[in-house]
C-alpha cells in the first residue's frame, strides 16, 4: 500500500492521477497487477492511499521493484512524484543436484591393481546480488510462494532506467487560433508525445492532440483552436526502453479575434 500526502491542508478539493510502471518487477511476468486512477482529497484532507496487488510465485529470484507515479495535479503541485515498491523474495534456493559418481573400473594382472575411486562433487550457483534503491518513501510488498520451487532460477536482467519527465514551459506565439507548446529536452529521449486538452484534468482532448508523436523536438505548433479559450498541454519523453511520466501542465489562453 502506498500513502500519498499533502504538505498542508487546503479548503479546496485536490486531485492527482496515478499509475504503476515496471521496474525489475513486471506485469508480463505476473509479479504484480498494474493499476491507475485518480486520487481525490476533500477539503482539509491530507492523505490518500493507493493499493497494488502483488502476485505470489514459486520462483527463486532476487528482490524486484516497481514504481507508482503521480501526474496532473489540480489545486496542488507534485513534490515527489514517484514511490518505489519492493517485492521481497522469500523462496528458498533450489537444492543442488550432486554430480553422479562414475562407475570405477579395475584391471587384473598377475599383481592385482586396486580399483579406481571417484569422489562425487556437488555444485551450487552463486547467490544472486540483491539490488537496492533509495526513495523518499519505500513501501514493501511480500510475495508468498504456493509450492516448493523445483526449477533452476533464471537470472533477472538489469532494467534500463525509466526516462524522467520533461519540463513543460510557457507557450509562445499565442494567437486567437493557435499557440506553440514548449518543453525541455530529456537526455536519452528519441521523441516526445504531446497532449492538448480543454480541461486541466485531461478528460477531453483537442482533436488529434492525444498522445501525439511530435518526434525528437522541443516545441510544437498547435492550430485550429477557438478564440479566447483556455487550453492545457503536457508532454512525455520516450525511447526504446519506454515512456516517461507526464510533465507538469501548462495553461494557455488564446487571444480574442
What does this structure look like?
The structure is a single chain. This protein starts with a strand and ends with a strand. Among the domains are: 2-87, Immunoglobulin-like (Sandwich), CATH 2.60.40; 167-254, Immunoglobulins (Immunoglobulin-like). 0% of the residues lie in helices and 33% in strands. The protein is elongated, with a radius of gyration of 28 Å. The protein contains no helices and 15 strands. It is mainly β and 257 residues long.
Assembly form of the protein: single chain
Report the biggest beta sheet as strand number plus sense, adding barrel if it closes.
Answer: 5 strands, mixed
Q: Which shape, going by the Cα principal axes?
A: elongated
Named at the architecture level, the CATH assignment of the domain at 167-254 is Sandwich
Task: Give me the side-by-side strand order of the main sheet.
Answer: 3-2-5-6-7
- Low-pLDDT stretches: 116-143
CATH C-level class of the domain at 167-254: Mainly Beta
Q: Topology as H/E string?
A: EEEEEEEEEEEEEEE
Coarse structural class: mainly beta
Number of helices: 0
| CATH topology-level fold name of the domain at 167-254 | Immunoglobulin-like
Amino acid at each position: 500500500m502506498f500513502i500519498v500526502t499533502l504538505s498542508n491542508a487546503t479548503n479546496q478539493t485536490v486531485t492527482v492521477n496515478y499509475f504503476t510502471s515496471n521496474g525489475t518487477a513486471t506485469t508480463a511476468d505476473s509479479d504484480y497487477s498494474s493499476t491507475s486512477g485518480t486520487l481525490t482529497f476533500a477539503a482539509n484532507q491530507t492523505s490518500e492511499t493507493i493499493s497494488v496487488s502483488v502476485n505470489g510465485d514459486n520462483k527463486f529470484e532476487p528482490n524486484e521493484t516497481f514504481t507508482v507515479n503521480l501526474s496532473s495535479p489540480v489545486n496542488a503541485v507534485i513534490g515527489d512524484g514517484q514511490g518505489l515498491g519492493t517485492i521481497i523474495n522469500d523462496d528458498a534456493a533450489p537444492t543442488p543436484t550432486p554430480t553422479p559418481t562414475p562407475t570405477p573400473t579395475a584391471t587384473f594382472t598377475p599383481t592385482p591393481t586396486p580399483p579406481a575411486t571417484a569422489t562425487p562433487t556437488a555444485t551450487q550457483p552463486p547467490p544472486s546480488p540483491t539490488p537496492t534503491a533509495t526513495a523518499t518513501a519505500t513501501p514493501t510488498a511480500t510475495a508468498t510462494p504456493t509450492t516448493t520451487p523445483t526449477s533452476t532460477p533464471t537470472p533477472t536482467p538489469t532494467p534500463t532506467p525509466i526516462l524522467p519527465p520533461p519540463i513543460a514551459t510557457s507557450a509562445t506565439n499565442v494567437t486567437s487560433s493557435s499557440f506553440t507548446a514548449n518543453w525541455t529536452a530529456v537526455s536519452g529521449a528519441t521523441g516526445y508525445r504531446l497532449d492538448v486538452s480543454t480541461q486541466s484534468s485531461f478528460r477531453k482532448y483537442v482533436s488529434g492532440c492525444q498522445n501525439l508523436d511530435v518526434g525528437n523536438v522541443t516545441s510544437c505548433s498547435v492550430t485550429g483552436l477557438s478564440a479566447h479559450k483556455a487550453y492545457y498541454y503536457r508532454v512525455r519523453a520516450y525511447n526504446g526502453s519506454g515512456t516517461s511520466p507526464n510533465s507538469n501542465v501548462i495553461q494557455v489562453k488564446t487571444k480574442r479575434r
